[in-house]
Design a protein that fits this description.
507 residues, alpha/beta, Amidase signature (AS) enzymes, eleven-stranded mixed β-sheet, two-stranded antiparallel sheet, 13 strands, 43% helix, 13% strand, globular
Length: 507
């Protein structure tokens, strides 16, 4: 090769690199959406490497304070370069909407890579999972980049009753990016705070009873809690196969729906739940339900006990907006068999979850390739000798109660029967008799009602209090009602545009 040729190539590479950097500077990373990224990729204004580099810089800047991310994938830049190469070659995978886009997954969702999967617990550091979780496989199949693991309330808050939301033994206490003293909520704390603070655009969380809806509300983001079984729980550190579900947490309804379309569907490793729930998936996916007039003719229920005097004042403007957009608000609703429903949520749910947690966690730990704990009893023993004073302070009363259980006995069967009755004659009866499309609640107030029956819900940002702390509004419906809930949530979001980014540093 001649000296002239080498010189020309060098000039080209330098100018190309300079051009790419300039193009990246013109792209607005903050509050960017999947659609923004996808368009920038197509127009050669952005590369996956530039996107990952931006998020890594934001993580380096913000995460020491917010503690939203427990681990960063050391292969993230390698995966970004791979995605860029696939896009240059017009590989078939590059056509997918999430191709080359970084995704943060909650630390209880298994990844078969250099990342740990620990549910925030020191007991699982260094454990080796047999394979990717079902939802992670689906993300990788479309070329998404696993950016890292989001922090979470340790053991998804199923360790101790006095456990602080967003705290775990591995990272400490996560903060709300808007107001440092505010409750960041849990257990998908890091998924919500990291998305809110622009350390990533897309994250996955899990919910057993409020763990997607609640942190989404507290951090001004959108969270979708899918019908149980609509997304695979295979490879997810469990609490209850009956109530656990995996869902997206993003800044917009559109982004959350884009992710939902990718992660739903059958998984032979979560059979028969995903087979049964797959019948709910609409032909053509969920994106088609992003309709600006999605509120028109929707019947939205308001429970008498959900919205107190202060809530009514806070949410009144939203009620007016909903009506202006064509929704019919059915207020002063009362769920039938109130005592039965209350017992199911407060008593029966805890009895069932306690037994299910021990059984399901033991099964998960048994299948790990390597781990220092093989049972709930091992975890309890580990916690007792942990050198961390904070661990001793928090204790583990929930785990100790679960360890006392012995499978599904008479007490548990009765609790499960009461839950089934409460769902059938309570929530479902009220929804069907009043022809309600979705039940509304301030924040995640509806979470327990949805949890015991495996019903879906969506939280959308709804405002900020006097201190600047965010709050949301949740819409919940019957099993498989995601299309309707998406229409409602998207219609509300487009009519209000409430969300705003947090300050540079939490107040």
């Amino acid at each position: 090769m001649s000296l002239l040729t080498i010189l020309l190539i060098s000039i080209y590479l330098i100018s190309s690199n300079f051009s790419n950097k300039n193009e990246a500077k013109t792209f607005s990373f903050k509050e960017t959406t999947i659609d923004d990224i996808h368009i920038a990729f197509k127009q050669n204004k952005l590369t996956s490497r530039q996107l990952v580099e931006f998020y890594l810089s934001e993580i380096q800047r913000s995460n020491p304070i917010l503690k939203g991310i427990i681990e960063v994938n050391p292969d993230a830049l390698f995966l970004a370069d791979k995605a860029d190469q696939e896009r240059k070659l017009n590989a078939s995978k590059s056509l997918f909407r999430l191709h080359g886009i970084p995704v943060l997954v909650k630390d209880n969702i298994a990844t078969k890579d250099k990342l740990n999967t620990t549910a925030g617990s020191l007991a699982l550091v260094g454990s080796i999972v047999p394979q990717d979780a079902g939802v992670v496989k689906k993300l990788r199949n479309v070329g998404a980049i696993i950016l890292g693991k989001a922090t979470m309330t340790e053991w998804a808050a199923f360790r101790a009753t006095n456990l602080s939301n967003g705290w775990n033994g591995r990272l400490g206490q996560a903060l709300d990016p808007y107001v440092a003293s505010a409750d960041p909520s849990g257990s998908s704390t890091g998924s919500a705070t990291s998305v809110a603070a622009n350390m990533v655009a897309v994250a996955l969380g899990t919910e057993t009873a409020g763990s997607i809806l609640s942190p989404s509300s507290a951090n001004s983001v959108v969270g979708i809690k899918p019908t149980v079984g609509l997304t695979s729980r295979a490879g997810v550190i469990p609490i209850s196969h009956r109530q656990d579900t995996v869902g997206p947490i993003c800044r917009t309804v559109t982004d959350a729906v884009e992710v939902l379309d990718v992660i739903v569907g059958f998984d032979r490793d979560d059979f028969p739940a995903t087979k049964k729930a797959s019948t709910y998936i609409p032909h053509g996916g969920y994106r088609q339900f992003l309709k600006a007039d999605g509120l028109r003719d929707k019947r939205l229920g308001i429970l008498k006990d959900f919205f107190g005097y202060n809530d009514i004042k806070t949410y009144q403007q939203h009620f007016n907006t909903l009506r202006q957009k064509g929704a019919v608000l059915v207020d002063n609703l009362v769920i039938p068999y109130t005592d039965l429903v209350y017992n199911a949520i407060v008593v029966a749910q805890n009895i069932a979850l306690s037994a299910e947690f021990k059984m399901d966690l033991n099964a998960y730990l048994k299948h790990l390739v390597h781990t220092q704990v093989r049972s709930l009893a091992d975890v309890i023993a580990f916690n007792k000798i942990s050198p961390l004073e904070k661990l001793k302070e928090y204790g583990q009363d929930i785990m100790l109660e679960a360890e006392k259980t012995n499978g599904i006995g008479k007490l548990e069967r009765e609790a499960l029967r009461n839950i089934t009755k409460a769902c059938k004659y309570g929530f479902e009866k009220m929804m069907k008799e009043n022809k309600i499309d979705a039940l509304m609640s301030p924040g995640a107030g509806i979470a327990d009602h949805l949890a015991i029956g495996g019903y879906p819900g969506i939280n959308v940002p709804a405002g900020y209090d006097k201190t600047g702390a965010p709050f949301g509004i949740s819409f919940g419906g019957l099993k498989g009602s995601e299309p309707t809930l998406i229409e409602i949530a998207y219609g509300f979001e487009q009519a209000t545009h409430i969300r705003k980014p947090p300050p540079s540093h939490p107040q």
